[in-house]
Design a protein that fits this description.
The protein is mainly alpha-helical. It has one domain. Helix content is 76%, strand content 0%. It has seven helices and no strands. It is globular, with a radius of gyration of 18 Å. The termini are far apart.
């Protein structure tokens, strides 16, 4: 088994963290079936981000996200209000989360894809080539999430919606992925590799536990970018 080189405690904590997060995402999904969001795309946003945010995002959903299913945005709420910014970063993170899941899943199932993106030729580490695949998927998913948010809200055409989505979310997606890659690299190359003699492959719970931590870093790195975009009026409040 891929995870046999990792200590039992880390293995147990990794599995436990993933199980708790999946249970939290399931609770959010079940609640959204009864109380769907006003914007349908948010029905995907909350469960996806709870996969890494776990109990904290479960609380955030019930405290602030669930209200948006019934209550329109308060006119007095400022664009730079901390909850508004956190929702915007969460929306961005959902696309990144889905993209990273798809990218890592594709490379895991079809390792040859990593070769196309430089494994063995440019990079000895398969993981680095996988990050390129992740970014492509994350970017496409993030833009799609933004497109399906602003197009119906602003009654835009297909072309207008795509241009607007690219303008609105490119910087925040890039910031999220940079934060995610940075922490993932530190965990893999500064912790796992020197301590256990190898990095954690995507087939192990340790990898996905590390990804949970890295996604949280992505949220915090993208937060000020989303605050700036909201302050400038480039991005609409969720």
């Amino acid at each position: 088994m891929d995870s046999h080189v990792f200590p039992t405690l880390l293995h147990t904590v990794s599995i436990g963290s993933l199980v708790v997060a999946i249970l939290c995402a399931s609770l959010v999904t079940m609640d959204e079936i009864r109380h769907p969001q006003r914007m349908w795309i948010m029905n995907l946003v909350w469960p996806l981000t709870t996969l890494f945010g776990s109990v904290v995002w479960l609380w955030f959903y019930f405290r602030h996200g669930r209200q948006s299913a019934h209550t329109p945005n308060s006119p007095e709420r400022k664009r730079t209000d901390s909850i508004t910014v956190a929702k915007a970063a969460t929306h961005c993170g959902a696309g990144c989360t889905l993209g990273d899941l798809l990218g890592e899943g594709l490379v895991l199932i079809a390792p040859g894809v990593a070769v196309w993106f430089g494994w063995h030729s440019l990079f000895q580490e398969k993981m680095i080539a996988a990050w390129i695949v992740d970014f492509i998927f994350a970017y496409l998913c993030g833009i799609a999430f933004q497109y399906f948010t602003i197009t119906p809200m602003q009654h835009l055409s297909l072309k207008q919606g795509l241009i607007r989505a690219l303008k609105v979310d490119t910087a925040s997606i890039a910031a999220w992925q940079v934060g995610m890659y940075g922490v993932m690299a530190m965990i893999q190359f500064l912790w796992f590799s020197p301590s256990y003699g190898r990095t954690a492959p995507a087939s192990t719970p340790e990898f996905w536990f590390a990804m949970q931590l890295a996604m949280l870093a992505g949220f915090f790195i993208s937060y000020p970018v989303n605050a700036f975009l909201l302050h400038q009026g480039t991005k609409e409040p969720m």
